[in-house]
Every structure is written in structure tokens, then in C-alpha cells.
Amino acid sequence: MRSGKTARVGVRLDRDTLDVLRRVAERDRRTVSEVVRDALARWACERLVFDSRQ
Questions:
Q1: 2, 17, 20, 53: which could join 13 in a potential S-S bond, CB 3.0 to 4.6 Å?
Q2: Residue 21 CB: number of other CB atoms within 10 A?
Q3: Given this model, what pLDDT does residue 32 score?
Q4: CB 38 within 8 A of CB 45
Q5: pLDDT at position 1, please?
Q6: Count of CB atoms situated within 10 Å of the CB of 35
Q7: Could you report the per-residue pLDDT of 15-37, keeping only the tens digit for each?
Q8: What whole-number distance in Å separates Cα of residue 21 and Cα of residue 23?
Q9: What average pLDDT is seen over the chain?
Q10: What is the 3-class SS of the chain, one letter each residue?
């Protein structure tokens, strides 16, 4: 992937999950995509730490 380009991934979310993501995005003045990206990055880091301790 070239610098500045992001991969697009299609994901289906239920209405409740999407509503929560929208509220968080609005509160933090970010896009839903940014909220999801950051949440996935945090999860991946936590998973790496957890796996490295096993």
C-alpha cells in the first residue's frame, strides 16, 4: 500500500453497534472510521501483549 492510502474493508454492523460508534465519533469529533480504526489498533496491541505473556 502506498503512503497515505488505507485499505477499505466492508463490515456489516447491527444498528445498536453503529449507533454507539456514531455517538462516540460525534462526542470526540471524529469519523466513525477513525473510531473503528483506533479501537482495532488498541485491541491488536492488547492482544500482542497478552499473547507475548503466554
A1: 17
A2: 17
A3: 93
A4: no
A5: 46
A6: 19
A7: 999 999 999 999 999 999 999 99
A8: 5
A9: 86
A10: CCCCCCCCCCCCCCHHHHHHHHHHHHHHCCCHHHHHHHHHHHHHHHHHHHHHHC
Q: How far apart are CA 5 and CA 36, in angstroms?
A: 17
Q: Please give the radius of gyration of the chain, using alpha carbons only, rounded to the nearest integer.
A: 14
Residues 29 and 34: their CA atoms lie apart, in Å, by 10
Predicted confidence band of residue 2 (pLDDT cuts 50, 70, 90): low
Cell of 22: 456514531
In this structure, which amino acid lies at residue 18? L
